[in-house]
Amino acid sequence: MRWIDSHCHLDAPEFDHDRDAVWAAARAAGVCMAVLPAVQAADFERARALAHRLDLAYALGIHPLFVDRADEADLDRLAEALARWGDDPRLVAVGEIGLDHFVPGLDRDRQQRFYLAQLALARRAALPVILHVRRSADALLAGLRRVPVPGGIAHAFNGSMQQAGQFLALGLKLGFGGTLSFERARRIRALARELPDEAPVLETDAPDIPPQWLVRPAIERGPAPQARNTPAELPRIGAELAALRGWSLAETADRTAANALAALPRLRGLLA
Hints:
Blueprint: E1 3-5, H1 19-28, E2 31-37, H2 44-54, E3 57-60, H3 72-84, E4 91-100, H4 108-125, E5 129-134, H5 137-146, E6 152-155, H6 161-169, E7 172-176, H7 186-194, E8 200-202, H8 218-221, H9 234-245, H10 249-263, H11 267-270
Parallel strand pairs: 1-2, 2-3, 3-4, 4-5, 5-6, 6-7, 7-8
Helix pairs in contact: 3-4, 4-5, 9-10
């Protein structure tokens, strides 16, 4: 079985002390590929270099939680990076971009401006997008209709079935990760169970969104930080999806990998 982690921040500081060991453990667990989405202009070269060193894939973008600290020149830096590395087969998408309407105090107008500008850059580069979706599905869909792009992934999807259908109609796949493992995540689990076979891709969002088996209640954890997620958890997350859909593990790995390749076509050349 070959698993693809379609969204993993292996370049994050949380992995600075053991990054190679973390990826080696993921490979040993059957994870054959991971996509590393940058979140700010300062990370572009870091994500690219890591992808090349570990034989992974990367995406370039400015995350909605980082636009308040970005400036207009960062969009120029993104445009320059996409032009400079446009022929790099490991550059598979523009991302992580999008909108976050959950975190209070963010400038939504600024988020929207950066989102639309990055959609335009993705369209110009003929690259799919990796979208951050947090209580923002309808606004993201409106942007995609205004500035069409060649597909991509709605990361950590948590919208309605109707919204899911609209993302799929626009050529995007839907990302599912550790949240699937929580019984209380009823809507996400129902979506994962009922969506068409060609919809789901798997992701960890490591080091974030740890699955249930890594989480300890705060009363037990005390002042210690929450558990770190890693790409080695992907096959077990895949088992959660398999149980929900009635698929075998092998079928789950094959179907979600095929969906990831459809969403991010350049991945196919990296796995040949």
